[in-house]
Records
---
Amino acid sequence: MLYVYIEKLLIGSNFNQDNYDQIMDLNQTFVSHLSCSLTGEKYDASEIHNLSKVGKPLLVNYYLDQIKERITKPEISQTNLNGLWKYSFLLPVEKENRVSLNEVLTPLVTLNNVKKKIDFSGDLIVKDESYLPTASFKARGLCLAVSMAKQLGIKHMAIPTNGNAGAALAAYCARANIKCTVFCPEDTPEINVREINALGADTYLVNGFINECGKIVFEGKEETGWFDVSTLKEPYRIEGKKTMGLELAEQFNWELPDVIFYPTGGGTGLIGMWKAFNELEELGWISKKPRMVAVQSDGCAPIYKAWKENKEFADLWENPKTVASGIRVPIAVGDFLIIRALNESNGFSITVSDEEILNDRDFISKQDGLLMCPEGAATFSALKKSLKQGLVTNSEKVVLFNCASGLKYPLSDVNSYIDKNKRVDYSKF
């Protein structure tokens, strides 16, 4: 057993960096079991699962007491491991099955000029996920999903996507030599569709929304044998996304910010971060948790509506429309988990318009040089609205999540032209 080996490793010595690296190199994990997020029913972690028997997401559980006894915060910060795999003791993947594209620690970018423009006296920080493979935070979840697929012997994976998740799955499947099939709504940004196809996935456009693409994946499982890796319909994308919370905690020296604004479609990242914070709290590594804010577009806001109406589950949002394609999710299988995180953290949900999103994307890029994706810009729009409504104070420490590179989305046309054969009118400059 892993724990017996660790006991022998540590007897008669202080826990040092070499010991920590040896533990991280062990081809074992601290996973105890999976559990239904609604009923708590336990499932065997060594078997392949999608949803629980009652159709709800499964969550990975760990021997946290064992981790607490054997690993400390300083050792994590000092290890030579980089990116999400430095937290492998809180992940379910055995070392030999890790599928990696050299993931990095994503930076914290302070919006100094923007702060001044909106007269904000607190800390205004963006966690910029565009540095990850395929330039999106989807890399975290799909990295773990594909790694676990390799560990469990899965040979074919399928996903519905509005763009970035499909690209991430295609990339990691290519790396792991796993067949990949992707279904996109027909109005998915063209650059995303081309990227997915270029990464080797069998790529299909569908005349419907992401939930209707998901129906195709679900109904085809028995005939095709593919594994459905839709958002929250397997246990491991959450584990990848929770590394955002683990990184954030370490980057803030284990003292988390006051508020986190997160663009919310399926909500895997928000759920994952809240899971991370709960695990860190149980380990005794943090003393407070942030308020979580689920940001949605007013053209697709099922979570906001359910939270506002004090409901546990959200209704299907009819005719969803928004320029922020990543949060155009009309129904989320983990809706109750998102709402639970909002309520447990004393957070809230809020909506913003497409006009606000696009204006704020341009504003941030021109003020501080950070080209955010529309979903990321939506978090800034939400912050401004929250300040006006008194939901956030002017002196708090706030983190916004930029989930992908702005270069992956349509940008404004450039129509200004200089004819080299004519006299240049320099008065216009």
Note: The chain is about 40% helix and 15% strand.
---
Amino acid sequence: MSVLSVLKERGFVEDLTHTEELEDYLSNNRVTCYIGFDPTAASLHVGSLVCIMALAHMQRHGHRPIALVGGGTGLIGDPSGKTELRKVITQKEIDENKKGLRNQLSRFLDFSEDKALLLDNASWLTKLEYIPFLRDIGRHFSVNRMVKAESYKARMDSEDGLTFIEFNYMLLQSYDFMQLAKSYDCFLQMGGSDQWGNIVAGIDLTRRTIGKQAFGITFPLITTASGIKMGKTHKGAVWLDAQRFSPYEYYQFWVNADDADVARFLALFTFLPLEEINQVGHLKGADLNKAKAVLAFEATRICHGEDEAIKALEASVSMFGGLDIPGDLLISSSIPRKTHLVINKKSVPSSSYNKDDVVEKVSIIDLFMDSGLCKSKSDARRLIQQGGAYINGDRVASFDQIIISEDIKEDEILLRAGKKKYHKIILI
């Protein structure tokens, strides 16, 4: 399957240019493509993930991605999708931000042996001379067409209007495309839907100046099922930098996804096969929560590594209880399948019981008391009443509850009192 088909099926593509020619180009060439990232902060955020994952898919299909850090354009600020003038940042801030972006992108892309490139448009934009630029580049742009571009409309209609410096942004981004085409044989630019006008302008400039066909793909603006822009929370942006947004917080962001978003997010933000993801659509309730755990684990693993994903899973299990992930659910995921046992087994006190002496005979209250999690039956009742008693991650709802066969998971029962006190019952 071609990479374009993969991107379409996984929900990445909103629009593209020259559909048939692009399909042929991608199918018969090792293509170099690029996406630009302006260094407006020291960290990218979840809102950038669609672009990053698209580059990763391109690389996995044998193509060469370029992540273009906008050290030059960052000095101006892209007006696309903005109703207000972006804050102008200093060169020192840009240099610091570039370091952070390099570190984050390296988790998603392999930059070794020419497999991907990390470039900075400051290396050519800051060397431009104004008069030659106007003469050689500016003459190819129609102001009439430019003011009709969606990237400018919002600013043109705003109270503050569009500044002249921002008006030049389309020319500079187009110049980037032309420069990458000349120097790196890069004839495919990708970006968010708000970049359509800039991408088309770059394609036109490339054709006019070097006489070659270039292509563009745009991605949809991702919103949650509730209509909120992807990556926005009550705490602000969901950063990819672990110092700004911890791996545990990152995991929780994904595990708390709306039910309606789970399958879509698995397709966009993990590399799990679509044939497995398509099985998630019919899941509900507790079964869907297990799919959410896989989503959270895989997204965290891709962004922060396997070790941090496991730590985040462990922390989540210790706080909220575990889930047994069925062996036939999203089988390509590396998530531990018995998440209620993810907690370090050596650190969890345990007791052994004869199964026949427990099932249908022992009450929850007695088990909490005998395990040492509660000092007395009244203490156990109080714990249940306060909602702090759990069995295998499920809250105990009744004083009269007794142990039944459904409570046994792999010959074990995991009890929890409060947030951090555990005891494992081993049945023999």
Note: Residues 246-341 form a domain with the Tyrosyl-Transfer RNA Synthetase fold (CATH 1.10.240.10).
---
Amino acid sequence: MALKVYREYRGTFELVGEFERADPVNETFAYDEGYLERDDAAALSASLPLRHEPYASNEFSAFFSGMLPEGPVRHELSMRFQIPQSDYLSMLERLGDECVGALRFLGDEKSSYDPGYRPLQDEDFEALSKAEVFEIANDMQDSRLSLAGAQSKPGWFLPRGKDAKKAGSGDWMLPLGSAPSTHIVKIASTKHPDLPFNELICMTAASAAGLEIARSEASDTIPGAFFSERYDRIWSNEPPSMSGFDVPLRLHQEDFCQAVGWPSYMKYETRPDSCYMALCGRLIREQSSNVIADTQMFARQVMVDYALGNCDSHLKNHSFLYSPSWREKRLAPAYDIVCTTIMGYDHNLGIDIGDHRVIDGVTPEDFEFMSQDLHLPLKMIKNIAAEVAEEVSAQLAELASATGDLGRVALKIQTDSVERMRVLEQFSA
């Protein structure tokens, strides 16, 4: 296998390193010697620091495998490509033109994929809502796009200046080859018809509570469609063009699982002797370019997730976002915030709070442990809790007064959150 890794740096792709596979078992990844000599060379991850010695597969697999989708979409792609789900390098060879962050993977098939965009039509949205996994796999295969995570979500392109909320199906485009996407799209399915409203409500409440979030909107023109603007894409003053469109630049990112070198199946805290909260605090202290601000923001996100009943906040839902120069890292905006407690899932938290894994068992005393785990003053933690409880409660009350599905779902979340708000208020008193 000849598979090379490139990074987008200030609008151009630069060779970073290459994989060598003597056989399916013996694989290595090595940074390119020319790249290592550059003054602006940067590691791809905290788990893969710059070095001349090649990395063995047990050292790099967590980072690179973590760039692929999980669950049913990964299974569907595996069946199409006729390769095992565990063969993540072969998958990246087929899907690695457009990934989370700023990396691109090129193998022997690179010449057959030219960058560009294909307009999407009403039937594309209809097909996606009826056969979600199959159609998302189609999009990923056609666009050579890989987005990490268990949730089904293709990446699409919206020309600069158009409003995602008001854009019709004819405005959206499917990126092809190395063409960048601008938005993550989620379409309501028959299994979870309220999901777009749920996420819109939760993201709106999270923003009101002071959390930096990925800009998200429910479509006014496409029923059941929900769009999140990609925060790992930025517009420059003089953007490059592709197929007649201005296109954004890519920013690199790594999630917390990748940063510690853990595979995706370890994203949930399950062991009684572990402490993911302390792990996250240590990661931020070691990696962030603004430790105090990012630690406070992480504490705020934990409390927002708790208040809203988001039990699916795990290590892959927290990330570092790199600066355009690759010299600085900051906590990435929050994403994928939904009230899972009204969706029929179990109530186990992705990251334990104090001594409790089940969200319904969390007590005011459990939040005191956050002060120790995150190395923040207890008074500061209490102040954050008070702000979160006040602002989330107020936002849910406002949204619950709306008419239609939005108000109906907001009322469900508001009712579900009453006891958790009481816990936060008791802790902050």
Note: Residues 134-151 have pLDDT under 50 and may be disordered.
